[in-house]
Design goal:
Helices cover 7% and strands 45% of the residues. With 413 residues, the protein is mostly beta strands.
Length: 413
């Protein structure tokens, strides 16, 4: 009887195993890779690179020309030595990539498709430096404003606690305290007379400082209530144009009364907020956030007005719609400047703080993306090819810092 029960038990196990093997065969499984046909992908080849041989300062993108590329940007990687860079656009014969965050005398460019078994190489390729940490201030130093004179001396307003100091930094990096002011500054401007002008938004006040005679800034003028001086700029004749979140765009004639200046109201942007001002080729440009946008007035835009020698402002013309661009529409503008070629550079609060609008186009793109430091508070163009950034680089040992960036072009005038 026990023998029969044991035999029956083995028969049941055998039947279960046969059933399991049969039913498992009904499920789909991936075919082994060695059973699939090999897809022969054409080998990529690099035939030329533009700019040729070297990416000098000012080069923002690099074009790689060749054969057997793919027209899907994420189907391959592009490297300079071992440093990857972003592919902006691609076709089967051309790749446009960003300037890589690398300095090299003889880099190897590599195009690495995800499918091909062979990597395309091109070398040597030189990439010049464009970024330099120029000044690092001591711990707890906060920098408010920056300006550069015609001799490339930098002026910056620093504070440590309640003390606001005017600092001069020469081209070698040597620092000198010139004087003080007793309030928190907003902007620092070098006037056509070579003196420093300091705006104080909360009191609608502009102070002046002459480094040859002064140790403390004194009042130049103060605006009546109803006007704002968040941003200001001089033209070559000494007229001061200002604006902010109140009163619209205004101008003040040279040598104003210290307490009761004559304010010339232009009538523009009285209900809007001015986010920046700049003068270029006898036009004043204003970055404006419009309170009542419509088809002719984008919510965020840069407008321009022709200027006369007497400080008269012409009609508004739309220079650049910023609302239609996904980068600028979601960013805060802190500065904008033109270079000598008419390209517009815009400083924003973001991980990549500098944008470029190429002259004659509506195209806005990052400039030196992934190369410049983030947390850029302001930038100022010198009188050569350099701009200077105030950067928040606070740590246990450092305060704010100033970085110098080679733009490959001078500021426009």
């Amino acid at each position: 009887m026990k023998i029969f029960q044991f035999s029956l038990y083995k028969i049941l196990i055998l039947i279960f195993l046969i059933f399991f093997v049969i039913t498992c065969g009904e499920y789909d499984v991936a075919s082994p890779q060695w059973d699939q046909d090999f897809e022969d992908v054409p080998i990529p080849i690099i035939t030329s690179v533009s700019p040729v041989d070297v990416a000098v300062a000012g080069v923002n993108t690099i074009t790689i020309t060749g054969e057997n590329f793919l027209d899907v940007p994420d189907s391959f990687g592009v490297y300079f030595n071992t440093v990857p860079t972003e592919v902006i656009s691609s076709s089967t014969t051309s790749l446009v990539v960003r300037r890589p965050n690398i300095v090299a005398e003889a880099a190897t460019i590599k195009v690495v498709p995800t499918q091909a078994l062979v990597v395309a190489n091109h070398s040597p390729y030189q990439i010049d430096p464009v970024l330099e940490s120029f000044i690092s201030f001591e711990q707890n130093i906060y920098s408010y404003a920056i300006a550069v004179d015609p001799n490339e001396n930098i002026y910056v307003m620093n504070t440590e606690g309640s003390i606001y100091s005017i600092i001069k930094i020469d081209t070698s990096g040597a620092q000198k305290i010139l004087g003080t002011c007793n309030f928190e500054p907003s902007k620092l401007i070098i006037g056509p007379d070579g003196r420093l002008y300091i705006t104080r938004i909360s009191q609608r006040e502009i102070l002046v400082f002459d480094e040859n005679t002064d140790t403390q800034a004194s009042r130049w003028t103060r605006l009546p209530r109803g006007f704002s001086i968040s941003y200001g700029v001089f033209n070559s004749e000494g007229y001061f144009f200002a604006g902010g979140d109140e009163g619209g765009l205004i101008s003040i004639a040279p040598n104003p009364d210290i307490s009761d200046p004559t304010v010339n109201e232009t009538g523009f942007y009285t209900e809007d907020e001015i986010l920046g001002l700049n003068i270029y080729q006898n036009y004043i440009y204003a970055a404006v956030l419009t309170t009542s946008p419509d088809a002719q007035h984008p919510e965020l835009a840069i407008w321009r007005h022709a200027l006369t020698d007497s400080g008269t402002v012409g009609e508004m013309e739309l220079a650049l719609d910023l609302s239609s661009n996904t980068i600028t529409a979601s960013s805060t503008i802190n500065t904008f400047k033109f270079d000598e070629n008419g390209n517009l550079f815009i400083g924003i609060d973001g991980k990549d703080p500098l944008l470029i609008n190429y002259a004659g186009t509506g195209n806005i793109d990052y400039f030196y993306k992934s190369i410049l430091p983030s947390d850029c508070r302001q930038f100022c163009w010198g009188h050569g090819d350099f701009i200077y950034l105030i950067v928040d680089e606070k740590s246990d040992t450092k305060g704010d810092g100033i970085y110098r960036v080679n733009m490959g072009a001078s500021e426009g005038s």
